[in-house]
Amino acid sequence: MSRAPAQLPLGVGLRDDATFANFHPGPNATLVDRLVHQLDDDGEPFLYVWGASGTGRSHLLQAACHEASDRDGRSLYLPLAELGHFPPMMLEEIERLDLVAIDDLERVVGRKRWEEALFHAFNRLRDAGKRLVIAADAPPRQLSVKLPDLASRLTWGMTFQLQGLDDVGRLAALQLRARARGMQLPDEVARYILHRGPRRLDALFTTLEALDRASLSAKRKLTIPFVKQALGW
């Protein structure tokens, strides 16, 4: 099997920019540290991450898979928002991988076939000494899991709530993402984007991508007047 992150035949892959280096941890530094070191010999076998949409759950799970690849490990990212309508055959033999990252768990909760498959997959990964990280929009005990054994398994590991960033953190995250894209984003322009732009970080980063394209096309630096013109603000 390839040492790169495993790719599903359904075409689900990892975003190149979903890395730990490209994530501003803010109040989530302990969680990020646990994820970075999950594949260490003394790393946590199972991590459960929950938080509101737009707080970076998917980014962190994909970053964990990139980290596994950088360590020559085998990993798999399963976003159930995209894959949950399929039968859970993709969980077969995942214990051959070093790390499995299951996103959007809430999408399959209450479905007998999926819950049973997840329960058995959990056991196989544990018995093989492999690593598992799961993300959802609620803590384990607030999910309407019908299979008691699965509900029990979800509370076995460390659970972290992914905290949203305040305005200072959002500014730092925006400038970190800009630097990663090679963009020069002056403080006053970044603050203007935060003031006028969307509140959700993922939408804010989409805005930044649009500005990057507009700046390259127009061959102009990012200034407040240019941002107003490019975004119609």
UniProtKB/TrEMBL annotation:
Matching InterPro entries: DnaA_dom, Hda, Hda_lid, P-loop_NTPase
Protein name per UniProt: DnaA regulatory inactivator Hda
Native organism: Halomonas aquatica
Gene name of the record: hda
Domain Chromosomal replication initiator protein DnaA ATPAse: 92-160
Biological classification of the source: Bacteria, Pseudomonadati, Pseudomonadota, Gammaproteobacteria, Oceanospirillales
NCBIfam families reported for this sequence: DnaA_homol_Hda (TIGR03420)
One Pfam entry name: Hda_lid
UniProt xrefs under SUPFAM superfamilies: P-loop containing nucleoside triphosphate hydrolases
Domain Hda lid: 167-231
